[in-house]
Structures are given as C-alpha cells and as structure tokens.
Design goal:
about 130 residues, 5 helices
Length: about 130
C-alpha cells in the first residue's frame, strides 16, 4: 500500500502535466523528467525489479505474466469475453458469427490451459 502511495505521489506532477494540460510538443528536459518519474514509480511499486535487470529477469517476468494470464486468470478472461458477447449480441454490437468465434477461441486459449493445469495438480496429488 505504501508503495502505491509513493508511486502516486511521484507521478502526480506528470499526470497533472500530461493529462490535464495539452502541450504542443515535449522538450528534451520534459521528456527526461517524465522518464525519471516513471522509473521512480516503477521502483516504488515493484521494488523487486529495481535492481539491474538482465535478459533472464525480463524473460522471467514475461513468462510469469503469460502464465498468470493464460492459467491463473484464464477462466476470468473467458467469463469476461463470454459476458461481453452475451450482452453485445442481442444489442447488435457484435455479430453472432464473430461472437461464436470469439467464445471458441477464448475457451481454447484461456479455459483449456486452466483445466489442464487443474487436472495435472489433482492427478499429482492422487499419486
């Protein structure tokens, strides 16, 4: 919680500058100060990533994110896509053919990996 507060306080001037006012172009000093603020925010919110990252750390973070997206959050992403399609098809926002394709693809890419991981953990605990 403290890291989020520190990050919000760090980014407050950048948010005020970039979102509330519309400058025509950024100067070099503004770009450097914005980059510094973003790096401070990342270091405050993700202190484990504040050290020097190498290739294996970056790929590890990407691998963990992809694993979280397709396995841990997979059923929730599938349910969100299904809910959007259920609401969008009757209103005419989404064609039925597109909704069916979206539901089948999201089931294959998001729900099936979660089912396989769950079945593997149950099978390993049964041995």
């Amino acid at each position: 919680m403290a890291a989020a507060i520190i990050g919000a306080l760090t980014l407050a001037p950048a948010i005020q500058h970039f979102l509330l006012s519309k400058p025509p172009l950024l100067t070099r000093s503004q770009t450097k100060s914005a980059a510094t603020l973003v790096l401070l925010f990342v270091a405050a919110v993700f202190p484990e990533c504040a050290n020097a990252m190498d290739y294996s750390t970056g790929t590890g973070l990407v691998r963990d994110f992809v694993s979280w997206l397709f396995v841990d959050a997979g059923p929730y992403v599938f349910m969100a896509i299904l809910g959007i399609c259920v609401l969008g098809v009757p209103k005419g926002w989404i064609p039925m053919k597109g909704a069916v394709i979206a539901v089948i693809c999201s089931f294959v890419f998001f729900a099936v990996p979660s089912i396989v991981r769950y079945a593997a953990s149950v099978a390993s605990s049964q041995i």
